[in-house]
Each structure stands twice: as structure tokens, then as C-alpha cells.
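REQUEST FORM: STRUCTURE PREDICTION
Request ID: SP-0412
Submitted by: Lab K.M.
Chain count: 1
Length (residues): 274
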Amino acid sequence: MDKLDLPYIKSEIKKRDPFSNKGDYGHALIIAGKKGSMGAAVIAAKACLRSGVGLLSVSVPGGERCILQTTVPEAMLVMREESQLAMNTFSAIGMGPGMGIDPASEALLIQVLASCQIPLVLDADALTILSKNIKLLEQVPAHTIITPHAGEFDRLFGYHTSNEERVQTAIQKANDYPIHIVLKGHHTAIVSAGEISYNTTGNAGLAKGGSGDALTGMITAFLAQGYAVPIAAKLGVFIHGMAADITLQTQSVETMMITDVIDHMADAFKKITQ
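STATUS: Completed
RESULT:
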């Protein structure tokens, strides 16, 4: 068992080459959002871009495209209904925030599970769909990252009376499938086969809607940049929490919003890279 700390994160973060270009930092795809929950797509997209990805495309319903293009002009649009998704042309995929659990969303998830050959993050509605058809877990590609909070974890793997019990189950499931599990909580646990790390950053201001969407975007960005799967998860979790801790210097846990945290990601990166 390891605890994530600043020296470790500093040792893992890559320095950006001054002669590099956007093509050197990957092309992420975020599949998120639907009518009434486009905020999740916007939050995930902004956090992904703030985490250093070179290019970002976001798959949203065509009828909601204006929301994405006016709030995140840096992102490219993929209209969800238009065609079969050429997913393996991307560097990494993050799927689930606010995308819905309707039959079309379930069919898209099944398509992704069957065809994806690149790093994948599953969160939120994608996990809810899995929990309603638990046999789909067997189709999740090896080394996928799932990012459940306690409720999502219990829907997937059965009721637990404590977080310690959930961690023990996560250790077993990470070996069984094999997947990487980011069990979100006060001390988020990152569980991989034979390894468990606990985060040391973050505060109760993150206990609000949108926080997990941002984390999905961040982890997807690190995967797209070529980080190893467990390292991408650790970087995302630690920096997400650090940005929240910096936000707390000028906010309270009651008033903090995830958009404030995203705005302070630059300060977190400066602490890590300088």
C-alpha cells in the first residue's frame, strides 16, 4: 500500500518539449452529455483540456452541439448519431458522464467494449449501464479504468458496509477482470492488480456533482498523452485533489464549485512542474 505524495507525482510527470506540437500530446475522445445533462460533458471536456491533451473531440447528441461549441470552443464535435464511431483513431476514450442510460447509450457502450483497442475510462452512466447488465463486465477490455463512487461500486459488486470492504473487493475484481479501479472517496483508492495507492489530496468541497466528470476528463487526458494506465489514474486523482485544496484557500467547502477547481488546475500543475 502506497500513499500518493508530491515527490512521487513530480517524479512521474513528463516535461513538455519546447519544440513539440499538439500531435505529440494525443487526441482524446470524451463520450458524454445528453439533453439536460450537458454540463457533465462541458466539465469533462474542460478538465481534459486543462490536463495537457493535444487534441480533444467530444461526442454529444447533435441537438446539444451548440452548448458544447459555445462553452468549449477548443474541442472538436462528434455528433453521436451520425455514423459508426471510428474510436481507434483516437489515443484514449473517456465515456459516461451525463450520457444517459437509454437503449441507444447502452448500444454505444456495447460497441465501445467490443471494438476499443485503446485506453478507456468508464464512469457515471457507463457504470450504471454495466450494473444493470453485469455480464457486460466480462466484455470490458483489459486495463480499462473504472471510476466509481461508493454507490456505483456497490451497484456493480454488491452492497458493502464499509469502505474497507469495498477496497478488498476492488483488489479482487482488479485481478479477476483485469481492470484498474479508482474508488472515489475521502482517500480515493487506486487499485490495480497487485498494487493499491491512496490519495492524500482533496477535501469535502469535491463532494458535489461534476467532480467525477472532471476526474474522468483528466485521467483520459493523461492516457491520451501516453502515460501508463496506473500512472494516468494516479496523476488525475492527485492533481484533481490538489487543485481542490488550492481552491479552498479562497473558497469554503460549501461554496466551492468544480468549475472553480478546474480554474485552479494551472496552480496545481505549476507546483508539480516547477
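NOTES: The chain has a mean pLDDT of 96.
Reviewed by: T.R.
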